[in-house]
Amino acid sequence: MEKFLKDLFSHQSYDENNFFLIAGPCVVESEEIVMEIADKVSLICRNLGIPYVFKASYRKANRTSASSFTGIGDEAALSLVKKTGEKYKLPTTSDIHAHEEAAIAAKYIDILQIPAFLCRQTDLLVAAAETGKIVNVKKGQFLNGPSMKFAVEKIKNAGNGNIILTERGNSFGYQDLVVDYRNIPWMQEHGTPVVMDCTHSLQQPNQSSGVTGGNPQLIGTIAKAAIAAGANGLFIETHPNPAIAKSDGANMLRLELLEGLLQQLVNLRKATLMM
Length: 275
Known about the structure:
Elements: H1 3-8, E1 20-24, H2 31-48, E2 52-55, H3 74-88, E3 92-95, H4 99-106, E4 111-114, H5 122-130, E5 134-138, H6 149-157, E6 163-167, E7 170-171, E8 177-178, H7 183-188, E9 194-197, E10 203-204, E11 213-214, H8 219-228, E12 233-239, E13 253-254, H9 258-273
Parallel strand pairs: 1-2, 1-12, 2-3, 3-4, 4-5, 5-6, 6-9, 9-12, 12-13
Antiparallel strand pairs: 7-8, 10-11
């Protein structure tokens, strides 16, 4: 594990051979939901020896419909993410959408996440790099793994080598995505840990209803294949009741299913290390 990740997880006890997990609700809905998820997921991860990053978007800027929920307010949401991290002694992450957000968000979170649609935005990548925080760039649905070297170069040239890359599928027609697992080793060749986004790789975008669809029943399939392919980490959005979630409910894993899946993945990881 890279030094910057070891430093990130220095307050946690974990198995160094494990993958790390980035997990939480899609968006900050309320303090009650955020705390419930962080409490349950952190306990599961402690028991399984999985290093854990709490994730929740403070604002959803990329919505299909103008009527979709975007957040409870930037400062309120960021403060809740920070409070959650401090309470459970967890590193935290959230996505940013414009270069002026980087310095603001960096006051509250440990990892700045760059959304897939914005992975080529030079000013955004440079601003994130200049905060000194870890920068997690999601690979665009329109790019392959080798082409992500240019995002890595932009961040490194800005003086920051603490970079994570995340695979989240490629556009397949108008309303689906497909995962090319070659992108995991290809992106690792850029000298960064690689995360598999098991949630958004199962999206079905561009629905005529204005609400993105998904296939959450396949999250386990995506996650297992990613571990077998050598992914360093997994990204899984989860919620106690996805049916009433305010964002991406069609893609999130029901919280009660997470522990069983993670136990399977830990066992699979151990098996792959013995090969």
